[in-house]
């Protein structure tokens, strides 16, 4: 990326990896390394001049919260997401209605843009080898989502409540959802 992009900002929380990145990328004056948790990073300030392309190898335990944050709060900051995630997370992002994988992450991602699995990544390419497989997912945010939901904040809260109550009847779930509006 450093050879192709005008500017690369790498956000890395792990100090051990940061030192490796500093050594590896020392010859590139277009790369900026930020030692910070991506959940705390000020994405709005970073992309204030233009939408940016986000390329990430996401830790499996924070992939879903990061997607929620990026797509709910900062969608207009990005023109593209290309992220390696746990294969099950990728399958949830591109799931079809009615399937087991379909949930609030699916609704959020598919509301916010076009989603597809670019390719699968075998666990054999990692050392040490993880217990799970990975996939690279591509999300192209829509400037204007294809569905007009009116109050987007309420829509997101409703989706969260509906999918958090999967064993309850829809009527009871909607009643609970209306209690917080």
Would you kindly provide a written description of the structure presented here, covering whatever features stand out?
- The chain is of the alpha/beta class.
- The chain starts with 7 loop residues before the first strand and ends with a helix.
- It has helices at residues 15-24, 43-46, 63-73, 87-93, 104-112, 152-164, 170-179, and strands at residues 8-12, 31-35, 52-57, 78-86, 113-121, 134-141.
- The longest helix is centred in the C-terminal third of the chain and has 13 residues, at 152-164.
- It has a four-stranded mixed β-sheet.
- It has three domains: 1-36, no CATH class; 51-147, 3-Layer(aba) Sandwich (Rossmann fold); 148-181, no CATH class.
Keyphrases for this structure?
globular; four-stranded mixed sheet; Rossmann fold; alpha/beta; single chain; 181 residues
Strand line-up across the major sheet:
3-4-6-5
Number of strands: 6
| SSE topology string | EHEHEHEHHEEHH
**In total, how many domains does the architecture comprise?**
3
Mean pLDDT: 88
CATH topology of the largest domain: Rossmann fold
* CATH superfamily membership of the largest domain: Vaccinia Virus protein VP39
């Amino acid at each position: 990326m450093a050879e192709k992009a005008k500017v690369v900002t790498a956000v890395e929380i792990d100090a051990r990896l940061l030192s490796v990145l500093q050594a590896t990328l020392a010859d590139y004056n277009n790369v900026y390394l930020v030692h910070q948790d991506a959940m705390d990073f000020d994405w709005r300030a970073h992309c204030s001049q233009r939408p940016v392309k986000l390329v990430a190898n996401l830790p499996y335990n924070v992939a879903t919260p990061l997607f929620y944050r990026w797509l709910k709060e900062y969608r207009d900051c990005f023109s593209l997401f290309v992220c390696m995630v746990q294969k099950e997370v990728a399958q949830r992002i591109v799931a079809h209605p009615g399937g087991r994988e379909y949930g609030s992450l699916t609704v959020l991602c598919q509301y916010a843009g076009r989603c597809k699995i670019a390719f699968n990544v075998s666990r054999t390419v990692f050392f040490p080898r993880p217990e799970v497989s990975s996939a690279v997912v591509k999300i192209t945010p829509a400037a204007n989502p294809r569905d007009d939901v009116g109050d987007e904040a309420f829509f997101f809260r409703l989706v969260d409540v509906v999918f958090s109550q999967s064993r309850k009847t829809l009527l009871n779930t909607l009643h609970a959802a209306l209690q917080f509006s």
